[in-house]
Amino acid sequence: MLAKLWVIKIGGNIIDHPEGLSRFLERFSYLKGNKILVHGGGKIATRIAADLGVEAKLVDGRRITDEAMLRIVTMVYAGLTNKQLVAKLQSHKCNAIGLSGADGNAIRAVKRPVKEIDYGLVGDILPNSVDAEAIATLLDHGFVPVFSAITHDGHGQLLNTNADTIAAALAVALSDRYTTSLVYCFEKPGVLRDINDEASVIPQIRAGEFEQLRSSGIIADGMVPKLHNAFEAIAKGVAEVCIGHADDVLLLREQQFGTRMIR
Amino acid sequence: MLAKLWVIKIGGNIIDHPEGLSRFLERFSYLKGNKILVHGGGKIATRIAADLGVEAKLVDGRRITDEAMLRIVTMVYAGLTNKQLVAKLQSHKCNAIGLSGADGNAIRAVKRPVKEIDYGLVGDILPNSVDAEAIATLLDHGFVPVFSAITHDGHGQLLNTNADTIAAALAVALSDRYTTSLVYCFEKPGVLRDINDEASVIPQIRAGEFEQLRSSGIIADGMVPKLHNAFEAIAKGVAEVCIGHADDVLLLREQQFGTRMIR
């Protein structure tokens, strides 16, 4: 039987609220077993960009990462946020080690090809571009990798990369070696049957039920791609994908956390 | 016989010059054996601080690290500079892993006690505060740790810490496990007998000769504390301390690099 691995992603909304973030980090520290934390950015990069006079560039509503913006997200995500998270986890005796995809060549990416839009220095993760062995070496020696959403192309270029995608790529790549749960923590208790009722969490969705929930309109908007990606990760070997509130992270232990997606 | 370890520190002057930095990183990649890179800051932190309206605070000519400045050095040293170095080293097939002292609890420090001056969030490294086992685990698995000059106190606080001191503390702590050379790379070819003659490098200084070179005024000014610290590291188990030009780093292989200090 394979050892258990949690790959847990926290969104920018968690990062932006110090009290909720502190609660989450303490609880995450208590979670037993192999674990990886992946963090998004939060609003601080936007604020620092504005203070430095670097304008957020948008094309058709999509954010573009030019060189100036890449420097800022590298500073903020891989520097300030990552090291603050690591220092706080260490204070809870969780042996965190903060990484970007460049570190240990853990996650390579390619600059997104220019089609209608040139997204700039944004990285797409290809299959087999995660070095599972390097990450397993760290896990097996008791380190808790904490990944920021920065990767590299292997030729010296850092790239801004979506944190959800990083978490999924890590979970998929490590599922040969561990029974892997991919967990998305956000500020809702899970996938809701009624978006206005936080008590209407759907506890479990099987792959076969997803299409029906979508066509009936129960799962809509931003949840559709999230769940699509979840079932894709499951098809590639991840044991389960869970989505729920960051405060509830310890409920993962008894399978009572938010919405659980399985094969 | 113990395996060889190089602990190589590059100063801010190297960081600030892209061409020299590229040359150094390529040559560093070619150096065989276990190795650790420690980097200082460079002028970019000062520039970004100015752009963000954060004033460098000086008391009696000494730089003070207040909270705003700590955020900036964490962003720049542990984020931007560290990840750029790592990505470039990876492009040369050197398996760099960028770390602060908080990562893997590698280097703990204590906030410098307030005497005449309150230096703010500056960390002093105590004996036994380097986790040699964690770092050896990384080295023994082929990683090349790249340390920025940020540590933590173990209670969640990051601290700004002198890069020379970090390099010395790492070399001392690892000298039980490796035959350790501590190397300071800067923009001069070594310790000069005549400060105006770059050809006057003193190839070797033994501990017993240091006092005489100092009292005769050949070693003066900023070189005195540097060499004092070098011989202190040697007294604590480091095999040799070398100081020379970053361009010459590969001359370490045949003991032709700058000035070599030995017991």
UniProtKB/TrEMBL annotation, chains A, B:
Pathway: Amino-acid biosynthesis; L-arginine biosynthesis; N(2)-acetyl-L-ornithine from L-glutamate: step 2/4. GO terms for biological process: L-arginine biosynthetic process via ornithine. GO terms for molecular function: acetylglutamate kinase activity; ATP binding. The record marks K9, K226 as: Transition state stabilizer. Belongs to the acetylglutamate kinase family. ArgB subfamily. Its EC number is 2.7.2.8. CDD domains: AAK_NAGK-like. The keyword Kinase applies. It comes from Parapedobacter luteus. It catalyses: N-acetyl-L-glutamate + ATP = N-acetyl-L-glutamyl 5-phosphate + ADP. Substrate binds at G41, G42, R63, N160. Residues 4-244 form the Aspartate/glutamate/uridylate kinase domain. One of its GO terms (cellular component) is cytoplasm. Keywords: Amino-acid biosynthesis, Arginine biosynthesis, ATP-binding, Cytoplasm, Kinase, Nucleotide-binding, Transferase. The gene is argB. It is found in: Cytoplasm. This is Acetylglutamate kinase. PANTHER family: N-ACETYLGLUTAMATE SYNTHASE (PTHR23342), N-ACETYLGLUTAMATE SYNTHASE, MITOCHONDRIAL (PTHR23342:SF0). Catalyzes the ATP-dependent phosphorylation of N-acetyl-L-glutamate.
